[in-house]
Amino acid sequence: MFSFFKKKKPEAETPAAVEPAVPAAPQAEAQAEQPGFLRRLFGGGDEAPAAPEEVVAGASTAYEGQLFPETAERPVSEAEARRSWMSRLKAGLAKTSSNLSLLFVGARIDEDLYEELESALLMSDAGMDATQFLLDNLRRKVKEDKLLDAAAVKVALKGLLVDLLRPLEKPLELGRHEPLVMMIAGVNGAGKTTTIGKLAKHMQRHEQSVLLAAGDTFRAAAREQLMVWGQRNNVTVISQQSGDPAAVAFDAVQSGKARGVDVVMVDTAGRLPTQLHLMEELKKIRRVIGKGMEDAPHEILLVIDGNTGQNALAQVKAFDDALQLTGLVITKLDGTAKGGILAAIARTRPVPVYFIGVGEKLEDLQPFSADEFAEALLG
């Protein structure tokens, strides 16, 4: 189902097996509590730590997930999987779709229809710019093609929506770097940690080994949640109870290189873009990751709650200005009447949308397709 991934070419040599991390002995734990034992060189700046081996010694703990081995799954054909996904996508976007599709039922092609379309698009949070763009082009197409019935106008609008959303359609390619380092950002409640767990599972299905970094050192619940995902997926999680999140990110990159993993995903603390000091910390994490590996992070993803509407567009602008985003993951599109936000993003800040989510299950997170999205809205 996930052919969008670019698989890494097989290597000539098989990497040596990595021994599971051994928990620190009680003496080491006692040492860890002593002042200065966990001191980092970049506590006040961006310098990389001199001894990344502290991942084992006590600065961070490597949790080897072994509690939930993967269960056997019934083989599903590509066609069956896509039908299932389209069904869930249409159900998730039903509120947005009903506000648009019902306008064409028995409608006349007149100014009233255009006004109702304008209102419906604005209510879906498509934004004034995208709404005006779509309606201007729809008027032109209706005139040029001499469209006389509402069904034909609906098809024309769907085609224009696909063209608008197409620049957002970009596959996430794996295997470009060893490891591929991904930094994941977002505000609290957007579903960031859950999305990381789902992405890790998808990557494993495409023969990619994954290591996770619990960079949210402020919330114990966030670290525990990520560790649970690591246990379910049999994925190592680099974590630290307190301290500099940049240190955890750096240690994870170093550990990923040493272990020969394919993908390192770094979770970060949720924050609002108006919290400038926290946004500066995100910039620092990015810089320190770059010291751990040249050109890293290779992907910087922002996870967005689809229910937030125009606020989501403000988040994209703020995080893109601060971090230069490479992609978006839009979650919780199920049950919202604000699905038009993708049109606003495409028109205002066209950062690629790698994935969209319409539920809690693993299969409810799928690659974004402009054709599928437009079909779910206007099919």
From TrEMBL:
Membrane protein topology class: Peripheral membrane protein
Limits of the SRP54-type proteins GTP-binding domain: 352-365
GO biological process, one term: SRP-dependent cotranslational protein targeting to membrane
Low complexity bias (residue ranges): 13-30
Chain residue ranges for the region called Disordered: 1-30
EC primary class: hydrolase
GO molecular function ontology, one term from the record: GTP binding
One GO CC term, this protein: plasma membrane
NCBIfam families tied to this protein: ftsY
Record's catalysed reaction(s): GTP + H2O = GDP + phosphate + H(+)
Residues the entry annotates as binding GTP: 186-193, 267-271, 331-334
Taxonomy, superkingdom: Bacteria
Species annotation: Massilia cellulosiltytica
Pfam families according to UniProt: SRP54, SRP54_N
Role according to the record: Involved in targeting and insertion of nascent membrane proteins into the cytoplasmic membrane. Acts as a receptor for the complex formed by the signal recognition particle (SRP) and the ribosome-nascent chain (RNC). Interaction with SRP-RNC leads to the transfer of the RNC complex to the Sec translocase for insertion into the membrane, the hydrolysis of GTP by both Ffh and FtsY, and the dissociation of the SRP-FtsY complex into the individual components.
Name of this protein: Signal recognition particle receptor FtsY
CDD domains (UniProt xref): FtsY
UniProt keyword annotations, A-Z: Cell membrane, Cytoplasm, GTP-binding, Hydrolase, Membrane, Nucleotide-binding, Receptor
Family as reported in the entry's similarity comment: Belongs to the GTP-binding SRP family. FtsY subfamily.
EC number: 3.6.5.4
Subcellular location: Cell membrane; Cytoplasm
InterPro entries linked: AAA+_ATPase (IPR003593), P-loop_NTPase (IPR027417), Signal_recog_particl_SRP54_hlx (IPR013822), SR_rcpt_FtsY (IPR004390), SRP/SRP_N (IPR036225), SRP54_GTPase_dom (IPR000897), SRP54_N_sf (IPR042101)
Self-association state and partner proteins as the record states: Part of the signal recognition particle protein translocation system, which is composed of SRP and FtsY. SRP is a ribonucleoprotein composed of Ffh and a 4.5S RNA molecule.
